[in-house]
């Protein structure tokens, strides 16, 4: 068997709606076996994730997260992705880490917005002006083509540069104003203290929470969690690992039972907005099973292009 190397050159052939379809189909298969390993050196993180889905295959993804790298003009996150055959266990492909991460991370939250945000949503606020926010800008436009964007970042120059480079987006210096005026709020930061206050939220809004991935990270406060209908992409990868939920659960602010659904509830119709005026929050944990679904989609697209 010839080992395939799938590079970022395949990206022009990828489609956000097809990526969403791969997530829906993946969650109709048997529940993934998943395991995560986190190692920490001061503020840096080694995250190794493995997944195996019967009928789809297996994947191992390792990420090195170095928050200070942008100051060195290097990506904050680097790593590797290996895709294995479900039939015979052979290594089928090595995929570009940044390509898989971009499409998995953005499609993950896009899937939530597709099913939880109001269909008439058109005002989208991005909190954070990094690589993930740029991916979400592209992704949201696939299902909200009339979207008007607002960008907020701690570094106002970064927000201004983000807005200068893209269409239908403006920078906003006042985070509260950016949040209250939005239909969809997407947080993509590495904040250790809550940025979004529950008192700012209004009925009908949807929040995609992406950034917090460590036990010591938060992007929204307790009041926001208490006001919202809570969803996650995967209970298994969020509730006991990520500060956004682990911390308030430990303190009794919310309970695990308050999580209304995850993506494995989608085939049964439970992953949906409870009511027109609900505030919905979905925490993106980005487990390896999602990397597997997206990597399989990317690999199949690459393979089709080789015919």
What do you see in this structure?
This protein is an alpha/beta fold and 307 residues long. It folds into 2 domains: 4-101 and 289-306, ornithine cyclodeaminase, domain 1; 106-287, 3-Layer(aba) Sandwich (Rossmann fold), CATH 3.40.50.720. The protein has 9 helices and 14 strands. It has helices spanning 16-26, 97-116, 131-143, 156-165, 175-180, 222-227, 235-238, 243-250, 288-306; strands at residues 4-6, 33-41, 44-53, 57-65, 77-84, 91-95, 123-127, 148-152, 169-171, 184-187, 206-209, 229-232, 259-261, 280-283. The strands form 2 sheets. It has an 8-stranded parallel beta sheet. Strands 1-6-5-4-3-2 form a 6-stranded mixed beta sheet. A hairpin with a 3-residue loop joins strand 3 (44-53) and strand 4. Helix 1 crosses helix 2 (97-116), helix 1 crosses helix 9 and helix 2 crosses helix 3. The longest helix has 20 residues, at 97-116. The protein is globular, with a radius of gyration of 18 Å. The two termini are 17 Å apart. The model has no long low-confidence stretch (mean pLDDT 95).
């Amino acid at each position: 068997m010839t080992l395939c190397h799938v590079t970022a050159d395949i990206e022009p052939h990828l489609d956000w709606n097809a990526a969403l379809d791969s997530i829906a189909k993946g969650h109709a298969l048997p529940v993934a076996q998943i395991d995560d390993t986190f190692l920490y050196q001061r503020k840096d993180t080694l995250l190794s994730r493995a997944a195996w889905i019967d009928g789809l295959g297996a994947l191992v993804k390792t990420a090195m997260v170095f928050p200070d790298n942008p100051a060195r003009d290097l990506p904050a996150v680097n790593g590797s992705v290996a895709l294995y055959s479900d039939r015979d266990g052979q290594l089928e492909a090595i995929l570009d880490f940044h390509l898989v991460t971009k499409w998995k991370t953005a499609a993950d939250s896009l899937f939530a917005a597709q099913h939880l945000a109001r269909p008439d949503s058109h005002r989208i606020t991005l909190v954070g002006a990094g690589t993930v926010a740029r991916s979400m800008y592209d992704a949201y436009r696939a299902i909200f083509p009339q979207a008007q964007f607002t960008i907020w970042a701690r570094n106002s120059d970064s927000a201004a540069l983000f807005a200068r480079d893209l269409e239908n987006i403006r920078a906003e210096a006042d985070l509260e104003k950016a949040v209250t005026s939005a239909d969809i709020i997407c947080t993509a930061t590495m904040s250790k203290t809550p940025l979004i206050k529950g008192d700012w939220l209004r009925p009908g809004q949807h929040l995609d929470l992406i950034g917090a991935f460590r036990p010591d990270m938060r992007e929204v406060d307790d009041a926001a969690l208490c006001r919202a209908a809570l969803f996650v992409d995967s209970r298994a990868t969020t509730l006991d690992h990520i500060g956004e939920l682990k911390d308030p659960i430990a303190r009794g602010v919310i309970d695990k039972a308050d999580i209304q659904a995850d993506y494995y509830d989608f085939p049964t119709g439970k992953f949906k907005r409870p009511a027109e005026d609900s505030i919905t929050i979905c925490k993106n944990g980005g487990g390896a099973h999602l990397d597997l679904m997206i990597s399989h989609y990317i690999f199949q697209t690459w393979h089709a292009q080789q015919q």
